[in-house]
Description:
Layout: E1 5-8, H1 14-25, E2 29-34, H2 37-50, E3 57-61, H3 67-81, E4 86-89, H4 104-132, E5 135-139, H5 152-172, E6 178-184, H6 206-217, E7 227-230
Parallel strand pairs: 1-2, 1-4, 2-3, 4-5, 5-6, 6-7
InterPro entries: KR_dom, NAD(P)-bd_dom_sf, Sc_DH/Rdtase_CS, SDR, SDR_fam
Family: Belongs to the short-chain dehydrogenases/reductases (SDR) family.
Pfam families: adh_short
Amino acid sequence: MQNKVALITGGSKGIGYGVAQALMQKGVYVAVTSRSEGAAKDAAKKLNESVSTEAKAIGIAADVRDFESQERAVAAVLSQFGQLDIIIANAGLGRFGSIENLSLEDWHDVIDTNLTGVFYSIKAGVSALKASKGYFISISSLAGTNFFAGGAAYNASKFGVTGFTQAIMLDLRQHGVKVSTIMPGSVSTHFNGNEPNEKDAWKIQIEDIGKLVVDLLEMHPRTLPSKIEVRPTMPPSKK
């Protein structure tokens, strides 16, 4: 993995940041994106200060809902590093509520970010990944196979991400590009207004997802774990 290059959408915090940190510790150069240029650059600065390898991070303002924005992000990575070996399609958000209360704006915000954003990410980067025989990883969710009340938009987006990623895995493996989706359960992040604290100790931690990504990338080329469910070992009892 030394001197490989990764583009991580939604990489300024949470899972994306944890993955960026884990990759840099293995010598991977990373570009983290955020809708906010300040957030992206702050995250890159923090990564560069906290990781001791020679690998560096850059921050790029990009919106996964905008295909041209994703194209510019890929072009920026290629301009800076000359190659693109790994794309982590991580950017996502949640809007929850019954179908009576779910607004059109909420629906489009979730679908455009969580699902269309994954399509735009691989569509913009597929040529670069074919050239490098690279790896595409989407971050789906256990909500991509398990539906729940109030989750219509979120479930639809994550069911879509799971199916989409498995389909493009079949499209791209003959080109030497590996494709996987990771489906986490509860992760200690700022998702949906959560503020990570000691009460989140039972949850999956962002460094755990980072380690999982590293494990995938270090898997023997003949083997492809295409869909990985990961959940907390011991969640609180609902009784």
